[in-house]
């Protein structure tokens, strides 16, 4: 039987690092960010939906999505961000579930669903366990500012657009402490995989 693990965190807590670790250990990862991109490619129903709502200004001259312009709009307006998520939610969910079933059909022991807004979009109801990658609020702010070249105010705006990392930690089945080195994070993931018996039965 395949175990489906939901992997999440908050912006700049290091979820992508942990996602890559699972890939390195040989486990399939279904990446919601890839799904979010796939459902708004040129010619998709998803792109048509957001063009209708946000207007032609978020479309490049070649017909593709202007992600930078759309990103600026939704990070500055909570209602528009909520509407974007609502518009794309059914398309992304279908993509994620389709990709997950492809892996389950292969008979793998573990499939990891890498989903930034896992709790916000209620994917915790369709996975067997949830792993949250966490750092302290101070480190989260510092890493986000450095990574995205943002002011403190801009970074806090993005952080507060999601459920807080503290809330997610409280809801999680497994918490990975990513305040330290990558090696420390890897050891925590490897320990969990070992405890669950996945390292000896990789699909």
UniProtKB/TrEMBL annotation:
Gene Ontology CC annotation, any one: cytoplasm
Enzyme category, top tier: transferase
Enzyme Commission number(s) of this protein: 2.7.1.24
Pathway: Cofactor biosynthesis; coenzyme A biosynthesis; CoA from (R)-pantothenate: step 5/5
One of the GO BP terms on file: coenzyme A biosynthetic process
A Pfam family this chain is assigned to: CoaE
Cellular localisation: Cytoplasm
Positions that bind ATP: 12-17
Molecular function GO labels: ATP binding; dephospho-CoA kinase activity
Sections of the chain in a coiled coil: none
InterPro entries: Depp_CoAkinase, P-loop_NTPase
Catalytic reactions on record: 3'-dephospho-CoA + ATP = ADP + CoA + H(+)
Keywords from the UniProt entry: ATP-binding, Coenzyme A biosynthesis, Cytoplasm, Kinase, Nucleotide-binding, Transferase
Family statement drawn from the similarity comment of this UniProt entry: Belongs to the CoaE family.
PANTHER family named among the record's database cross-references: BIFUNCTIONAL COENZYME A SYNTHASE-RELATED, DEPHOSPHO-COA KINASE-RELATED
Database matches in HAMAP family: Dephospho_CoA_kinase
Described function: Catalyzes the phosphorylation of the 3'-hydroxyl group of dephosphocoenzyme A to form coenzyme A.
Name of this protein: Dephospho-CoA kinase
Native organism: Carnobacterium divergens DSM 20623
Lineage, opening ranks: Bacteria, Bacillati, Bacillota, Bacilli, Lactobacillales
